[in-house]
Amino acid sequence: MVRSLRIIFSLLGFFSLSAIASFANPLVYGGQYYPEEFVLKQIPEVWTKYGLDVEHILFSSGADSDQALISGQIQINCGSDSRTASLLSAIPDEGIILATIQKGDRYATVVSPSSSFSDWNDLKGQMIAVRLGTGAEQILRRFFAQDPNLAWEDFKWVNLKIEDMIPSLQAGRIAAFTAWEPTCGIAEAQGAGKILKTYGEISTVPVSLHTTRAYAENNRDIIIRFLAAHLEKVALIESNPEEAAKLAAEYSNKTGFTVQPEAFISIFKRINFSLDVTEKDLESIKDTAKMLHDGGQIANLPNIVYDPSYLEEAKKLYEEKKTN
Amino acid sequence: MTQDRKTSVKPFFLINKKIIYPTIFIGLLLLLWEQASGIGLRAQLFPAPSTIFRQLITMLLPKEGSSILLCHLLASLRRLTVSLIIGSFFGIIFGIASGLRPYIDALTKPFVSFFLPIPGIALAPIFMILFGFGDPAIITAGSLAAFFPVLFNTSSGIRTVNPTLINAARIMGATRWQKLVHVYLPWSAIHIFSGFKLGISRSWRTVIAVELVAAADWGLGYMIMQAVEYLQMKVVYVGIFVMALLYLFIEKALIGFVERRTIYRWGYSPEQGVRQ
Amino acid sequence: MKNQRVTSFLVVLLIIVLWHYASIFKILPDFFPSPTGTLKVFLRMFLDGTLPRHLIESLVRLLTGLSIACVVGFAVGGILASSAFLSTILYPLLGFFLSIPTVAWVPLLIVIFGLGARTVVIAVFLGGFFEITYSTYQGIRTIPQSLTNAARTMGVSSARLFFDVHLPGSLPSVLPSLRLAAGYAWRALVGAEMLSSMLRWGIGKMIFEARYWNDLGVMFAGLICIWSVACLFEKAVALLEKRTLGKWGIAR
């Protein structure tokens, strides 16, 4: 009896000892559930091409990835203009933008395929889901600001998480949701929704890559190579969107889900995945920051810091590799 | 005799060693924490106790007519109360039925064994789809959480009533209803009560857990998740602190109070309660 | 006993049949999976290796966290029981922490320890730790003083006292609470996995992702997995109880 107890204890001790922390990777990149990120996950050879050892993690929440960046768990992350503003406000003088990974027509409002809504006026008084505090909310506010017939108060809002949008629409609990891709594309491909409106003309709403100044200054070379790898991804998407869609669908299949490439094809054709940060992009982020600050969601107005030197050198590196 | 009775039911706020020492210890811990935090980048993530306390007061005080903290708190409490009412009600009914009739017990067992092991938070997505996000999903999960302990304990309480008493009642010509009210219920009251206590604990945990996932407007769980979204860690700490305080209050003060007025008064001694 | 088993089985069968017809006759919404649909998803995920991977990762995290919780819980419980001073100052803290729903810890843990598997293990640890500490403490306290005295007169050292007297003696109180602790730990696991956005594998994560990809079949498969594992755990603890307490004849 006592012997068996001792055995049990040693087993328990063994299990405990085996819980030693893993070794840190040179570069941990926190991505998000974006279509181009899925593609990147499927082409890890771009990291090795540039001699990088990257642990690419996909976050389901931008806020969590900001937290991870601040606490040092990850070194580079990405996020929409709202995230950029929140992050730079949270770590003033520390956060910098490296590049964009997505911009353009990335938000859409989706309604049920059997419904008869044809524009926002039809939706008045209905229950609409949007994730407050994200770029989706900002784009809608901008949209309403330029349409005299529509006001935020005309609708019943509910703050759902992105993953609850499609199920709630399907179950009939909401009349519409506004979200970023690929959720809208997935809804359409599954027949669970149809796109009512996209917002490409309102704002460029860029999704940017962020890092801390401390990391950037000490790892300049790594960042340049990292950005060059991203350039490879952009080249693939722009030259062959069908292949990109296939890769994106394959990624989700890997964890056991059945997603068809059709969900991604229109996304890859519609959205701009260029890494260049334009003046318009920076203006857009500043505008979002102001909106968030006025709304009380961020404490102080951040300094939007973009260092173009990294991307410039990354482009040079990419061109060099191409010709070799 | 009365002397013993008094000491076994000690009021909570008695000045003695058991209160002073822990308070000093906790005070020291808080001081240490206060000193250690507020340094560097991680100050964001590890606010000092004073910051947290100030945040607590800020959220407690009414702004534009209502206190944010109280709104969230009351929303969670509301869901808890409704869950408890529904859960205990059905728990007692099914418990009595299972206790009295073994075949009902056999029928309910598979339902119980299916739902019992599944954490409420895992059922949350399904409930959100079936019943809608927010209150419907949360209250369903909370009611289920309260239902099972009450069911178990009521049923076992009914079954352990002394048969002699039942026979005595029968011989005296009691009807089924009279037997239920005058024999079964009083003697299983203490079991039902322990089941209820367990039910509160389970239900509270489930309501908070499901709120983290399924709530879209108010609730302590929702407050915490939103705070995480905006990187407002002090609100997270406030939330956890309030949660624990609330539960302690409910368990120790409220239930203890009811217990003392009812069960102790009727002469039953405190039990450990039926553990599952 | 056998009759009960048969009835239970028949009831489950009845539910499945009702479910099947409900989905055929469109009583349930048509995105709701049918029993055959769920079975197909289950088999597909099992065969292509994704389901076993999710399960194994979750179980490893669970066992790791629980083991540490057991070891540390026993140790702390034992220390608390042996020192009146320590128990006076720490007992209220223990009570306070016990009343915090385990899942509520997760957002805080995520902040402190990050969003990976490490946090999940720590959440599992916390889920089990407080409960085990509490019941070890109570269990040791209820060991009849005569046993401890007898052991001391036989000249045992403190360590042997702990392992050979206190630990087995506290088991009648600890083992039932182990069930409770395992339950809390399991809940902590699923909750933490659902909220840790940095994970890729795990049952909780799988269910969470099923929401994102709107794949209800996978969600159901996940629920069935959770249920099976929880049942197995219950049986395992019950077996442990039988083998130890039952054999030693200590009444519960």
Q: Count every beta strand of chain A, where a strand is a DSSP E run of 2 or more residues.
A: 10
- Which CATH top level class of the largest domain in chain A fits? Alpha Beta
The dominant shape of chain B is elongated
Quote the CATH topology of the largest domain in chain A. D-Maltodextrin-Binding Protein, domain 2
| CA radius of gyration of chain A | 22 Å
- Rg calc of chain B: 23 Å
Q: Helical region count of chain A? A: 14
| Assembly state (oligomeric) | heterotrimer
Verbal overview:
- The complex is a heterotrimer of chains A (324), B (276) and C (252).
- Chain A is α/β, with parallel strands linked by helices and 324 residues long.
- Chain A folds into 2 domains: 196 residues, D-Maltodextrin-Binding Protein, domain 2 (3-Layer(aba) Sandwich), CATH 3.40.190.10; 92 residues, 3-Layer(aba) Sandwich (D-Maltodextrin-Binding Protein, domain 2).
- In chain A, the strands form 2 sheets. Chain A has a 5-stranded mixed sheet with strand order 2-1-3-10-4, sandwiched between helices. A 5-stranded mixed sheet of chain A has the order 7-6-8-5-9, sandwiched between helices.
- With 276 residues, chain B is mostly helical.
- Chain B has one domain: MetI-like fold, CATH 1.10.3720.10.
- Helices cover 77% and strands 0% of the residues of chain B.
- The N terminus and C terminus of chain B are likely disordered.
- Chain C has a single domain, classed as MetI-like fold (Orthogonal Bundle).
- Chain C is 84% helix and 0% strand.
- Chain C is built from 10 helices and no strands.
- In chain C, helix 3 packs across helix 9.
- The longest helix of chain C has 38 residues.
- At the B-C interface, helix 2, helix 5, helix 6, helix 9 and helix 10 of B face helix 1, helix 4, helix 5, helix 8 and helix 9 of C.
In short:
Chain A is of the alpha/beta class.
Fold topology:
The complex is a heterotrimer of chains A (324), B (276) and C (252).
Chain A: H1 2-17, E1 27-32, H2 35-42, H3 45-49, E2 54-59, H4 62-70, E3 76-79, H5 81-90, E4 95-102, E5 107-111, E6 127-130, H6 135-145, E7 156-158, H7 162-170, E8 176-180, H8 183-189, E9 194-198, E10 207-212, H9 213-218, H10 220-239, H11 241-254, H12 262-270, H13 279-294, H14 309-323
Parallel strand pairs in A: 1-2, 1-3, 6-7, 6-8
Antiparallel strand pairs in A: 3-10, 4-10, 5-8, 5-9
Helix pairs in contact in A: 2-11, 5-13, 8-12, 10-11, 10-14, 11-12
Chain B: H1 2-8, H2 17-36, H3 49-60, H4 68-100, H5 102-115, H6 120-131, H7 135-159, H8 163-171, H9 176-214, H10 220-229, H11 233-264
Helix pairs in contact in B: 3-11, 4-5, 4-7, 4-9, 4-10, 6-7, 6-9, 7-9, 9-10, 9-11, 10-11
Chain C: H1 2-24, H2 35-47, H3 50-82, H4 84-98, H5 102-113, H6 117-141, H7 145-153, H8 158-195, H9 203-212, H10 216-248
Helix pairs in contact in C: 2-10, 3-4, 3-6, 3-8, 3-9, 5-6, 5-8, 6-8, 8-9, 8-10, 9-10
